[in-house]
Amino acid sequence: MARTETDGTHPRPSTDTRTDWHAQDAEAVVSALATDPQSGLTAGEADERRRRYGPNVIAAEPAPSTWSIALMQLRDPMNLMLVAVAVLSVVIGEIPTAIVVAVLVGLNVVLGTRQEVKARASVDALARMQTPQGRVIRGGTLTQLDATELVPGDVVQLEAGDIVPADGRLLTSATLETQEAALTGESAPVAKDPQILAAADVPLGDRSNMAFQNTSVTRGTATMVVTATGMHTQMGQIASMLSAVAPSRSPLQRELDSLTKVLGVIAWTAVATIVVIGVIRGQDVTMLLLLGISMGVSAIPTGMPTFVQAMLAYGARQLADAKAVVKNLTDVETLGATSAINSDKTGTLTMNQMTVRSLYFHGRWYTVEGEGYAKSGKITQVAGEPVPDFTLLAYGLCLDSDATVSDTGEVVGDPTEAALVVLAAKLGVDAPRTRRTYPRVATVPFDSAYKFMATFHHLQVDGDTQFVELVKGGPDVVLARCTTAFRPGRQTVPLDEVREELTVATRAMSEKGLRVLAFAARRLDGREDTAAADPMSLVDDLTFVGMVGIIDPLRPEAIESVRIAHEAGIAVRMITGDHAITASAIGAELGLGPGAIGGPELQAMTDEELSAALPDLHVFGRVTPQDKLRLADLMQKGGAVVAMTGDAVNDAAALKKADIGVAMGSGSEVTKQAGKMVLTDDNFGTLITAIRLGRNIYEKIVSYIRYQMSKLFSLVLLFLVASIFNINDGVALTPLMVLFQHFFITLFPVAVIMLDPAPPDLMNKPPRDRAMPIANRRAFVQWLAYGVLQFALTLAAMLLAPGEMSTTEGNVPMTTAFVVLSLGSVLGGLAMRRDPESGLVPPVLGALKILSVPIVVTVFAVELGFLQDLLMTTSLTGGQWLACLGWSLIVPIVVEADKALRRRRRRRAEPVQPIPAEVAVDPRRARAR
Predict the structure, then answer these.
(1) Which 3-state string (H, E, C) describes 722-772?
(2) Per-residue exposure over 336-364, b if at least 16 CB sit within 10 Å of its own CB, e if not
(3) Is 166 helix (H, G, I), strand (E, B) or coil?
(4) Residue 633 appears among annotated catalytic residues
(5) What is the pLDDT of residues 742-753, one digit of tens each?
(6) Are 215 and 192 in contact (CB under 8 A)?
(7) Which residues of the chain have pLDDT under 50?
(8) Dihedral (CA of 138, 142, 148, 151) sign
(9) If DSSP codes are grouped into helix, strand and coil, which group holds residue 458?
(10) Residue 221: φ, ψ to 5°
(11) How far apart are CA 508 and CA 516, in angstroms?
């Protein structure tokens, strides 16, 4: 017997940790909850329990303030280094430099803060889903209350159209069905009844004697006793999981963090070297600080956060145009790293619209065309067969169901019955008019106890009005009540002659993942009174009419999208609340990899066993929200970058855990808030398009960092050499010259990189190796080599230029170095926009138009008086300009020669083999080429 606690006055239920209510009989549950099924709780008992358990609401975490987010952005290492530079600039009187650097820090903080403001809205959205009303028995009176007022032990009445206000154990029910797709992911409504379930470990979707908060009642009536409210409900547990899942930093964020640390070490080591040399030489403190600021500005990638943000924003706009909206800019890049997709089935890969796909009628097979609740579509058959008379089947489809479907596809009632109404429309029969013409004389309503529905009508059959019984239900139940079966031409034969044939037909549809419903009929002329008095007594001696196979059909683009994902080396797994057999059949139609497993088997496996089995498992059925979360976690630990798609509340925690959570636009608000991206067209194919765009953006970021780092290395070397050899009193360029380079010169080559079209073979490569960061050894060697090239040319131009050097007024050598560095950056950016492909191939005219701007800006910086005063430049002669151009042209020539040599070596090597089949389903075995 279940225990109760007492406080000396009233029995107190112990509900905080109970999860096995389905395994207790109704009387035991009522006793444990200390309530009464007829009179419910008294007002005083309800108040006491509300004080104990709190209101029936989903608790929301307070969102971080904008100021706290901004402070977190300010603590970024790169911004801290820039703040230090600004402070030092003020100390030595370099006010213009301090202002420019401060503006840059502010820009970085504002952009970063904007992207984080909505980071923790998931639980708030879940709270907004709270059901507003419930019919509760309090003190023996049925009362309409706000759902927030419910407490454990309340007795609640439910009927079709209600939203269940809390989790509860059913006490009584009549033909009750609930739609639990939002919680379990199962498409079809679930039949419910109060019968006890023997096992305590029954999966959530199979707890047929329980009703769950925020699921909807699609049929019947029931009385339930509330067993859990607020955060103790299944919805509340999902909210708890959302709160426990910490947002993870994207791969790009982690790589840029590492790169920033490396650059910080380089920058401050270089600054320390310059300061030590200056102290040894006895240089003035102000001059040393100026040198340190110049060195710091040159070595810190001041524009990198802004430029990367701009590139990601450009990618976000591209994604929005493709109907994929990202919340945070870094998620654009994360898409490009995706190596595994865990997709929900219902509403994501499928249309979430039950559809009759196959028809077995009078011993013959027919194919039903059309998708969803659209009433257009044909019934096709084998050539040469006579056109059948579907009259009896059409009667069953229309009259033995209650759902309605409008011409626009809006459904009222059970989705499975809606599929039958749509099939009737495809047969040319209008369900509402048929129901009005042939009203019911008697009815046996559907009940999960006997799993069929029967209705009795006066119908037109073979030109006469006859009293006919129509029966619809599971094939095993209907066949058990049949004695004969129709054959072609409406001939009847004993059922035993065709029983094996019907069993084979049922199995064939089930193995395809179809939900099978059987139809039967019986003529009962003259027995109207018996039917009205006891209709159940007449549900036997039936004649089998036919069967239909119903499925939630795949989205038309899903199969092609899965194929493209496999070609790109991305593993696609389907994770659903449906049974594993149904899910496996759909997985086969999609072309997923081998292996299907159900929730109970999955839960029985250890993490080590599941991780080892994952490469051979691609379909997961009957899973719980916890299972989805666990799968995402294990795949991430195995090195995969996981994208998780879904539209229901039960997907929310896994979406938040995944590297890129993808919510459907028509899905729940909770899911959209938990995810990092929303597909506004609910199209799985849009995710593949988004991944293609994400890969392209990553390639552009790599190109940008290659370009930026080469420039930074050239500046660091230039300042170090100038300091060590005391060139121009150790100051190669002024701080404002360096900032001018960052803002007004490099900006335009970056724009060229951003606008460069994607290579055509982008989705024929496997996902990049996550273990290979942007700042890998080979990349560093390339950056350094290109940096040395630009440094050497700039230094040579400076040393060979005529005139004396001075740090107090403009001079030709420093101006020459400034111009060569600018023009070399522009022309080098054109060559570096692609690698290892040539940067000088079409489309190149658009790039040249953009790059003409920094060339003109460089001329203005040298020749305009106010810019000369600000930057300490001086005018150059025509010959000096030609010399600068000659030095600068060496940069793209050497870069293109290096890439041509690498392309030649690659062509000489063995040709790249196609991605093996096992890689297509296990991207962990693939490595980026």
Answers:
(1) HHHCCHHHHCCCCHHHHHHHHHHHCHHHHHHHHHCCCCCCHHHCCCCCCCC
(2) bbbbbbbbbbbbbbbbbbbbbbbbbbbbe
(3) coil
(4) no
(5) 778 887 888 888
(6) no
(7) 1-10, 118-127, 129-131, 807-808, 912-929
(8) positive
(9) strand
(10) -135, 165
(11) 10
CA distance 927 to 917: 14
Q: Look up residue 127 and give its two tokens.
A: 């709270």
Neighbouring CB atoms inside 10 A of 15's CB total 22
Q: What is d(CA 366, CA 290) in angstroms, rounded to the nearest whole number?
A: 85
Q: Which two tokens stand for residue 481?
A: 């009540």
Structure confidence by residue, pLDDT tens digits, 4-24: 444 444 455 555 556 689 888
Q: Which residues of 721-752 are buried (b: 16+ CB within 10 A; e: fewer)?
A: ebbeeebbbbbbbbbbbbbbbbbbbbbbbbbb
Chain mean position to CA 494:
54
**Shortest CA distance to 809 belongs to which of 754, 731, 747?**
731
Q: What is the pLDDT of residue 306?
A: 59
**DSSP collapsed to 3 states, 892-920:** HHHHHHHHHHHHHHHHHCCCCCCCCHHHH
Burial level of 427, CB count in 10 A (0-12/13-18/19+)? middle
DSSP state of 347: I
The amino acid at residue 210 is M
- How many CA atoms within 13 Å lie on the side-chain side of 197? 21
Instruction: Give this prediction's pTM.
Output: 0.65
Q: Which residues contact 349 (CB under 8 A, 6 or more apart)?
A: 343, 554, 555, 558, 574, 586, 590, 684
Q: Residue 550 in contact with residue 354, Cβ under 8 Å? A: yes
Q: How many residues does the chain have?
A: 929
Q: Quote the CA–CA distance of 409 and 422 in Å, as a whole number.
A: 9
* Catalytically annotated residue among 167, 344, 402, 682: 344
